[in-house]
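Dear support,

I submitted the protein below through the web form. The confirmation email said the job was done, but the results page showed an empty box. After a refresh the structure appeared. I'm attaching both so you can tell me whether what I see now is the final result or a partial one.
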Amino acid sequence: MGTLATVLAKKKIRTFQDRFRAEVTGEIEAVDGVMKITRIMVHYFLKLPDDQRENARRALENYIHLCPGAQSITGCIDLNHELTLEPEA
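What the results page shows now:
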């Protein structure tokens, strides 16, 4: 979340706790008789004004190459991420 929040902040999109959260799930499978994390899914939720939606989508597309956690598992564990944009209250 931290790397995406940093990229969003550069685009003047706020990521306070009441506006930005993530749900993370994973899959564990037996691979050659050994239990292994094979997939991690990250679902981000962000509340923002309509005029910032495109910037948020671009941030999601571009943050992954800057994320130490994601880069650490690239090639080892499948990582999927998605962003749900919610209207600002």
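Response: this is the final, complete result; the empty box was a page-load delay. The mean pLDDT is 94.
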